[in-house]
């Protein structure tokens, strides 16, 4: 396997250092980048089109559970993403798989497993722990709807979920307010939502351990 360029996205400096050390020891990585927030992740992906692999934490500042993974799948669908998380609940692992990750490494796993996972993924394989959770039809539906959005529309959706008004979204994303209005309309239509609030609630279900509400028993 030729040398690759890896982007490590995690807000814990010591863990990033451990990952970088493990990848250097593996010998297959030529260049490594590190970021500690979603905003830094978006900038790095834009500046480094030659990144071959992303190792992604779910709890960085600016993230809504799997929102960073969903954004990456929309922005760079060909770029493989491995989730690295301290939350190794089987449902979280299953959701990572359904939302497009090619692997999942628990932070409790031996450091050596990181290099092995990277090698497997770069050879076209996947690397998930044994899965006990069943596939979620809700997640399949949500992934399908989110896949309809452009990367810019996903950014607008994330701002909507934070409660920003169109004028504020325009300022954050450097867009004209009328352009934001067009994006908001498109987002609601593609997500099959009737309001901004409904879209924000839908995005909330991207939180790592979100569980569907069970129907209440009749009195």
TrEMBL record:
PROSITE patterns for this protein: HTH_LUXR_1, HTH_LUXR_2, RESPONSE_REGULATORY
Pfam families xrefs: GerE (PF00196), Response_reg (PF00072)
Entry keyword set: DNA-binding, Phosphoprotein
Keyword Cell membrane applies: no
Domain Response regulatory: from-to ranges: 5-122
An individual GO BP term: phosphorelay signal transduction system
4-aspartylphosphate carried by residues: 57
One term of GO molecular function: DNA binding
Residue span, HTH luxR-type domain: 142-207
Protein name: LuxR family transcriptional regulator
Species in which this protein is naturally found: Stenotrophomonas terrae
């Amino acid at each position: 396997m030729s040398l690759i360029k890896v982007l490590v996205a995690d807000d814990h400096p010591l863990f990033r250092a451990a990952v970088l050390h493990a990848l250097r020891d593996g010998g297959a990585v030529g260049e490594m980048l590190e970021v500690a927030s979603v905003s830094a992740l978006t900038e790095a992906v834009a500046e480094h089109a030659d990144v071959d692999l992303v190792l992604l934490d779910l709890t960085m500042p600016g993230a809504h559970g799997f929102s960073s993974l969903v954004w990456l799948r929309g922005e760079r669908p060909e770029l493989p993403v491995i989730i690295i998380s301290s939350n190794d609940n089987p449902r979280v692992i299953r959701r990572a798989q359904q939302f497009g990750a090619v692997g999942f490494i628990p932070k409790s796993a031996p450091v050596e497993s990181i290099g092995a996972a990277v090698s497997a993924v770069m050879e076209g394989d996947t690397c998930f722990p044994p899965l006990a959770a069943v596939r979620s039809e809700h997640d399949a539906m949500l992934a399908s709807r989110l896949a309809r959005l452009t990367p810019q529309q996903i950014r607008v959706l994330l701002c909507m979920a934070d409660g920003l008004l169109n004028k504020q979204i325009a300022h954050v994303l450097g867009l004209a307010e009328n352009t934001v209005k067009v994006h908001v309309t498109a987002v609601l239509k593609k997500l099959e939502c009737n309001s901004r609030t409904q879209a924000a609630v839908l995005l909330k279900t991207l939180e790592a351990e979100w569980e569907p509400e069970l129907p209440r028993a009749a009195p």
